């Protein structure tokens, strides 16, 4: 079977130890994201199996209708709203789910918190320009770290915050707030108090119909002018246009971002990149060698199992 791996921006997949799992099979690797479904369908016309790198490509009914040879989509990590599972079932394309880990995204989120609050990237950039000590950052100790979403990543962030001497304030579902209390942390009495009391707010929610644009401009307006918003989850959790407008108005005063509504970004003039109070990273929360090996080993093993007529981790088994 012909296998295609999509969106390998960094030419990294062939260098992974787990890539050896596909030895002996015909493998095509695409290094660029193609958002034109006609062009992408042309590149994939002979592919029977495609391997997705997380959510970099949208798998829509329009695209699936142009891929009559496609039999399996093997996902690195869990399936999400980038993939139309009903359309996959309609076109008899099996979807194999992979595995995830909170370690790398948790560390990246904390790194963004540290860099945004301490203003490290701005100091480095100024030094490259021959300037010395152009700004004054702030420490984490004594601050209130607001965590919206107390799942695996949120729980890890809470532990980091405690080690750094910060207070933790959790918002989210009733069950997640109660879990936070069980773990010795505080829960916010209301969404309004969560936004107004936190010195840093970091988002760790899944994106779905109920969480789409769940953070409103009115929420951001409640934040302190000294506060920072960190988003390593999904850009669409925030109301369209609200973050840039709020940053310009000074509430919050800072942001650290790893996710954007339209990725990848190749435009150096992208507005958020031009804002001195914003630290941006190019969606690298899961882009780390141990995570890659974990994700791709499972994805490739699912491919081999399917080829050997022993499909595993199929999210829509009715197509088999």
From TrEMBL:
Keywords: NAD, Oxidoreductase
SUPFAM superfamilies, alphabetized: Formate/glycerate dehydrogenase catalytic domain-like (SSF52283), NAD(P)-binding Rossmann-fold domains (SSF51735)
Domain D-isomer specific 2-hydroxyacid dehydrogenase catalytic as annotated: residue spans: 11-313
CDD domains, A to Z: PGDH_like_1
Pfam families: 2-Hacid_dh (PF00389), 2-Hacid_dh_C (PF02826)
Domain named D-isomer specific 2-hydroxyacid dehydrogenase NAD-binding: residues: 111-285
Gene3D superfamilies from the UniProt entry: NAD(P)-binding Rossmann-like Domain
InterPro entries, sorted: D-2-hydroxyacid_DH (IPR050857), D-isomer_2_OHA_DH_cat_dom (IPR006139), D-isomer_DH_NAD-bd (IPR006140), NAD(P)-bd_dom_sf (IPR036291)
Entry similarity comment: Belongs to the D-isomer specific 2-hydroxyacid dehydrogenase family.
PANTHER family to which the protein is assigned, alphabetical: D-ISOMER SPECIFIC 2-HYDROXYACID DEHYDROGENASE FAMILY PROTEIN (AFU_ORTHOLOGUE AFUA_6G10090)
Protein name: D-2-hydroxyacid dehydrogenase family protein
Organism, as annotated: Flavobacterium branchiicola
């Amino acid at each position: 079977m012909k296998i295609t791996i999509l969106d390998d921006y960094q030419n990294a997949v062939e260098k992974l130890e787990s890539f050896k799992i596909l030895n002996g099979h015909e493998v095509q690797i695409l290094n660029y994201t193609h958002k034109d479904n006609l062009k992408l369908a042309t590149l994939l016309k002979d592919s029977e199996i495609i391997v997705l790198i997380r959510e970099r490509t949208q798998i829509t009914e329009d695209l699936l209708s142009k891929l009559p040879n496609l039999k399996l989509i093997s996902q690195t990590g869990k399936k999400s709203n980038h993939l139309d599972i009903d359309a996959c079932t309609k076109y008899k394309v099996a979807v194999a789910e992979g595995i995830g880990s909170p370690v790398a995204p948790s560390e990246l989120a904390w790194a963004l918190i540290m860099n945004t609050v301490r203003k490290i990237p701005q100091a480095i950039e100024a030094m490259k320009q021959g300037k010395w000590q152009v700004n004054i950052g702030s420490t984490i100790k004594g601050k209130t770290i607001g965590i919206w979403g107390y799942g695996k990543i949120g729980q890890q962030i809470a532990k980091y915050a405690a080690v750094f001497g910060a207070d933790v304030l959790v918002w989210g579902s009733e069950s997640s707030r109660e879990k936070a209390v069980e773990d010795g942390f505080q829960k916010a009495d209301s969404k309004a108090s969560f936004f107004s009391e936190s010195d840093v707010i970091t988002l760790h929610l899944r994106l779905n119909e109920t969480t789409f644009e769940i953070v409103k401009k009115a929420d951001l307006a409640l934040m302190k002018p000294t506060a920072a918003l960190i988003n390593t989850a999904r850009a669409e959790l925030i109301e369209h246009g609200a973050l840039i407008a709020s940053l310009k108005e000074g509430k919050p005063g800072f942001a650290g971002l790893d996710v954007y509504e339209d990725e990848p970004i190749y435009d150096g003039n992208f507005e958020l990149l031009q804002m001195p109070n914003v630290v941006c990273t190019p969606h690298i929360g899961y882009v780390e060698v141990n995570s890659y090996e974990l994700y791709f080993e499972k994805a490739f093993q699912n491919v081999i199992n399917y080829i050997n007529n022993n499909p595993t981790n199929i999210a829509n088994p009715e197509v088999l």
